Amino acid sequence: MKVREIVDRVLTLNGEERVEDTCDLLLEGDGEQPVTGIVVTFMATVEVIRQAVEAGCNLIITHEPIYFTGRDKREWLRNDPVYHAKKAFIDDSRISIWRYHDHMHHGKTDLIYAGMQKELGWYDFLDAGMDKPQHCYSIPPVSLESLVTCLKDKLDIKVIRVLGDLNMMCSRVGMLVGAMSMGMNDDNMPAAMMNDKKLDVMICGEVLEWTLTPYVRDASAMGFKKAMIVLGHAKSEEAGMKHLPALIQPLVGDIPVRFIDSGEPFLSL
User: Which of 95, 183, 188, 204 is exposed most, by the fewest CB atoms within 10 A?
Assistant: First the structure.
């Protein structure tokens, strides 16, 4: 089976609707290349590419860009040695890299959130009728500290940033993965969601330190039961990619499909 054939099949996973202005493109490689194995990852870093090559896989499906900007524009990299070294490595490895982002988020369901719900076991706690980018849950009451411990264990995160009283009890939980917790084009959305949905805690991907962060900080200082948990962009979306191979495998027959963790990007000192 060729790269383009696999791409076409994966695009059927989340409904028939197609995003016209999309970043879901073949970023490197050849659509006519026969595929020996598939790696699914949050981000196709050099380390992930090395592991894919070692595993005998020549197609990587990545959720995020490979060349350091949202749309993988390369004009600004023309004279950059880091770009040229990475591209040469990809070319020499004869790896094809396809991005699967927009159609994961904007199909009949959001497959990133679906993976997170499966990883946490929260399917039964999701509020009915929630818009796809905004998920709210009513979980059994638990302390903020215990909730953080649960997230660290289930999502394999070494360090989580927390704002709020660790002893406060949480039941109403919001979740905004990736960049959604920055509001995207609506800065007030995360804080407004906390109020409108009567949330105790917001689980975030990335955050701005002048929007939701001071809202929760001020609320907590004045005695309101409000908290936030910051997982980071990668760890808030990684579970969606982790559970993607099980969806892809039936579409590609005997071609092996595996997940490679791109890992936490930072050291904690």
Answer: 188
Both tokens of 95, joined, read 């790896």
Give me the pLDDT at residue 268, please: 85
**Domain architecture of the chain: domains with CATH:** 3-106 (3.40.1390.30), 111-236 (3.40.1390.30)
The alpha carbon dihedral of 99, 105, 111, 112 has a sign of positive
For 119, left (φ over 0), alpha (ψ -120 to 50), or beta?
Answer: alpha
Can you tell me the distance from the alpha carbon of 66 to that of 96, in angstroms, rounded to the nearest whole number? 12
Cβ–Cβ < 8 Å for 65, 97: no
CB 37 within 8 A of CB 259: no
Q: Cβ neighbours of residue 50 under 8 Å, at least 6 residues apart?
A: none
Do 42 and 205 form a contact (C-beta atoms < 8 A)? no
Instruction: For residue 32, give the nearest of 3, 67, 7, 62 by alpha carbon.
Output: 3
Q: What angle do CA 95, 156, 205 make, to 5 degrees?
A: 80
Q: What angle do CA 249, 240, 215 make, to 5 degrees?
A: 175
Confidence at residue 132, expressed as pLDDT on a 0 to 100 scale: 61
Residues of the chain with pLDDT under 70: 130-133
Cβ–Cβ < 8 Å for 120, 175? no
DSSP per residue, 110-166: -HHHHHHHHHHT-GGGBPTT--TT-EEEEEEEEEHHHHHHHHHHHHT-S--EEES-T
Determine contact, residues 145/166, Cβ cutoff 8 Å. yes
